[in-house]
């Protein structure tokens, strides 16, 4: 399935490019509304990183004319469920390949909202082992209440089908049951930077910046 989804061009491109500049990846995780997207935008302004949001890529694919997965993705997003990994990985790989085709020095990526569950993690290991280096995980930590309040506020203007209380309850459950165990796995390997995301955008970013300056 992945071959069909990916297209041969991006597969062979990543194979070739991995000999030159292997993609360097930071996974960005946290609850819905923790501020992952907000912080990634600030990182992109300050560092030579490209932001790839799994949620944004899935929403774009859902809206793409002729997409065979549009309806399926729509159903998963409304239910706050995690879309099958083959679809998400193919979108991530395509985006990485496109970025590096345009500029081979752009090999540093913030992958936001991934891996969100065991299926995501295993899919990544299956398809990306040896093809990209995961440097560490940035974990934006804040309470469920803060997450929900921020998403409801965002929902006033975002037009997102899942920034409503009903979807949010499900998204929080998915986050607690499926994503937290992934963060814990990375923690056991000492690969997680936990950031208190309940503070102001600038306070959070001050911590993020210090981590990136130290690590990259
Ligand atoms: P995520 O990508 O984690 O879902 P976003 O970055 O889209 O979260 O942020 C969710 C909402 O909360 C947005 O409306 C954003 O403007 C707001 N927000 C993000 N970070 C903060 C913060 N530190 N304090 C207050 N509001 C924030
Ligand atoms: P986000 O924009 O990160 O809040 O994600 C919105 C929705 O997109 C999620 O609730 C999921 O339905 C879907 N989604 C986002 N990231 C993933 C992922 N890594 N794997 C599968 N589905 C995802």
TrEMBL record:
<keyword id="KW-0963">Cytoplasm</keyword>
<dbReference type="GO" id="GO:0047506">
    <property type="term" value="F:dAMP kinase activity"/>
</dbReference>
<dbReference type="GO" id="GO:0033862">
    <property type="term" value="F:UMP kinase activity"/>
</dbReference>
<comment type="function">
    <text>Catalyzes the phosphorylation of pyrimidine nucleoside monophosphates at the expense of ATP. Plays an important role in de novo pyrimidine nucleotide biosynthesis. Has preference for UMP and CMP as phosphate acceptors. Also displays broad nucleoside diphosphate kinase activity.</text>
</comment>
<dbReference type="Pfam" id="PF00406">
    <property type="entry name" value="ADK"/>
</dbReference>
<dbReference type="GO" id="GO:0004017">
    <property type="term" value="F:AMP kinase activity"/>
</dbReference>
<feature type="binding site">
    <location>
        <position position="59"/>
    </location>
    <ligand>
        <name>a ribonucleoside 5'-phosphate</name>
    </ligand>
</feature>
<dbReference type="InterPro" id="IPR006266">
    <property type="entry name" value="UMP_CMP_kinase"/>
</dbReference>
<feature type="binding site">
    <location>
        <begin position="33"/>
        <end position="38"/>
    </location>
    <ligand>
        <name>ATP</name>
    </ligand>
</feature>
<feature type="region of interest" description="NMPbind">
    <location>
        <begin position="53"/>
        <end position="83"/>
    </location>
</feature>
<dbReference type="GO" id="GO:0005634">
    <property type="term" value="C:nucleus"/>
</dbReference>
<feature type="binding site">
    <location>
        <position position="160"/>
    </location>
    <ligand>
        <name>a ribonucleoside 5'-phosphate</name>
    </ligand>
</feature>
<feature type="binding site">
    <location>
        <position position="154"/>
    </location>
    <ligand>
        <name>ATP</name>
    </ligand>
</feature>
<keyword id="KW-0547">Nucleotide-binding</keyword>
<feature type="binding site">
    <location>
        <position position="120"/>
    </location>
    <ligand>
        <name>CMP</name>
    </ligand>
</feature>
<keyword id="KW-0418">Kinase</keyword>
<feature type="region of interest" description="LID">
    <location>
        <begin position="153"/>
        <end position="163"/>
    </location>
</feature>
<dbReference type="GO" id="GO:0005737">
    <property type="term" value="C:cytoplasm"/>
</dbReference>
<dbReference type="GO" id="GO:0005524">
    <property type="term" value="F:ATP binding"/>
</dbReference>
<dbReference type="GO" id="GO:0036430">
    <property type="term" value="F:CMP kinase activity"/>
</dbReference>
<dbReference type="GO" id="GO:0004550">
    <property type="term" value="F:nucleoside diphosphate kinase activity"/>
</dbReference>
<comment type="subunit">
    <text>Monomer.</text>
</comment>
<keyword id="KW-0808">Transferase</keyword>
<dbReference type="InterPro" id="IPR000850">
    <property type="entry name" value="Adenylat/UMP-CMP_kin"/>
</dbReference>
<keyword id="KW-0665">Pyrimidine biosynthesis</keyword>
<dbReference type="GO" id="GO:0006207">
    <property type="term" value="P:'de novo' pyrimidine nucleobase biosynthetic process"/>
</dbReference>
<keyword id="KW-0539">Nucleus</keyword>
<feature type="binding site">
    <location>
        <begin position="81"/>
        <end position="83"/>
    </location>
    <ligand>
        <name>a ribonucleoside 5'-phosphate</name>
    </ligand>
</feature>
<dbReference type="InterPro" id="IPR033690">
    <property type="entry name" value="Adenylat_kinase_CS"/>
</dbReference>
<dbReference type="GO" id="GO:0036431">
    <property type="term" value="F:dCMP kinase activity"/>
</dbReference>
<keyword id="KW-0067">ATP-binding</keyword>
<dbReference type="GO" id="GO:0006221">
    <property type="term" value="P:pyrimidine nucleotide biosynthetic process"/>
</dbReference>
<feature type="binding site">
    <location>
        <begin position="113"/>
        <end position="116"/>
    </location>
    <ligand>
        <name>a ribonucleoside 5'-phosphate</name>
    </ligand>
</feature>
<protein>
    <recommendedName>
        <fullName>UMP-CMP kinase</fullName>
        <ecNumber>2.7.4.14</ecNumber>
        <ecNumber>2.7.4.6</ecNumber>
    </recommendedName>
</protein>
<comment type="similarity">
    <text>Belongs to the adenylate kinase family. UMP-CMP kinase subfamily.</text>
</comment>
<dbReference type="InterPro" id="IPR027417">
    <property type="entry name" value="P-loop_NTPase"/>
</dbReference>
<feature type="binding site">
    <location>
        <position position="171"/>
    </location>
    <ligand>
        <name>a ribonucleoside 5'-phosphate</name>
    </ligand>
</feature>
<feature type="binding site">
    <location>
        <position position="199"/>
    </location>
    <ligand>
        <name>ATP</name>
    </ligand>
</feature>
């Amino acid at each position: 399935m992945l071959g069909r989804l990916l297209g041969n061009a991006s597969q062979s491109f990543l194979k070739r490019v991995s000999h030159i500049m292997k993609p360097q990846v930071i996974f960005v995780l946290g609850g819905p509304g923790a501020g992952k997207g907000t912080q990634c935008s600030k990182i992109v302004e300050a560092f030579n990183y490209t932001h790839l949001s799994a949620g944004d890529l899935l929403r774009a694919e859902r809206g793409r004319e002729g997409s065979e997965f549009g309806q399926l993705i729509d159903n998963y997003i409304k239910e706050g469920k995690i879309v099958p990994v083959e679809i998400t990985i193919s979108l991530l790989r395509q985006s990485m390949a496109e970025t590096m085709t345009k500029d081979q020095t752009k090999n540093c990526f913030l992958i936001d909202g991934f891996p969100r569950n065991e299926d995501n993690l295993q899919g990544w290991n299956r398809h990306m082992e040896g093809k990209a280096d995961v440097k560490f995980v940035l974990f934006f930590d804040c309470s469920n209440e803060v997450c929900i309040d921020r998403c409801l506020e965002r929902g006033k203007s975002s037009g997102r089908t899942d920034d409503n209380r009903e979807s949010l309850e499900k998204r929080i459950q998915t986050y607690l049951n499926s994503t937290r165990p992934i963060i814990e796995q990375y923690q056991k390997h000492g690969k997680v930077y936990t950031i208190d995301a309940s503070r102001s955008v600038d306070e959070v970013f001050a911590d993020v910046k210090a981590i990136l300056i130290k690590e990259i």
